[in-house]
Amino acid sequence: MILLSALFITAVSSHDKSSAQKLADPNYGPIPGQSSLYSSYRGKAPPFPGNITDPIAPTAKGSPGTDDLVWQNLLSAEWVIFSFYQQAVEMFNETAFVEAGYPNTTYDRIQEIRDNEAGHLRIFQNEITPTSVKPGACKYAFPFDNPTSFLALATLIEISSMTFLTGLVQMAKLPASQGAMTAIAATETRHETWALLDIWKTNPFGGPSDTVFPYANQILDVTNAFIVPKSCPSENPVYPSPRQNLPPFAPASSTKSISPGSNIVLNFTDPTNQPSFHKGVQYYATFFHGPSNISVPVDTTHWPREDIKVEIPSQFEARGIILAVIADIVGAPTLASVKAGPVILLEQPAELGLLVT
In which domain of life is the source organism classified (predicted)? Predict the structure, then answer.
């Protein structure tokens, strides 16, 4: 019931550890799939359980559940995504989107997606067993200040969510976990389809398969860029865990296109985390698209004096997203073979690609 849900929104302090512990009971508060809160709530206040940001301490002793680590990573990522939409709901209103040229239903849809993401928070909390901590929210800063920059980043986040979920499904061991993650990925697909159709007026079909990337934690690590340093609760586990902390890179400003067949210049964006390329080792830019990948040799001999340039494989269809990493083995077949990245290259809609990398 919406009335009951509203009580949970307004009556619970967001920094009340005793309130957070009530969340250890999966039957506490509105239940996803049984409450319209996660679809029909409209309001600027964060909906349950997004209004309770503290971690939930373990309530039982024993070894972690089989897939607890995967769900902890996913819950920490969901706090990022939920907060992204919540900040937009608080910052904008219907008029802001209409004046920017978007349909008058846009703000309503964003609120509904925010509600869905709140439901994901609760689902992921409930999937973590009582022997493990359920991570709380950090503080987040997102690079948007107007409706267009928000919607562009939302498009990238939604399609990236589908991709890291394909990786997390491979990391999970229990069929029930794999099924739940697949169901969440289907919801993210609906969000993305709405944006492509209503916002960008483009074909929502991404080809016969979305991009499969085996190392989900590497994509999750990219979201650390949105987390305010040292703002996470001390009880939270390392995010993502295990974390490689790979050097990030993006197309340099001199790159004119990120479409298949285009040449891109690699810009390693973190001055405190630069790659180390060893003499005599051949490195590759490995591009993932659909269910396959293609590796292209790169010349690192004179880096950083000379830029690293590479051509995006022309064989790829310009749909969905392409993910790229730097690896020391063709195909990046192991976690350890990846030395930098990933970078997410948005192909659809093409005009947004360079704006959000």
Answer: Eukaryota
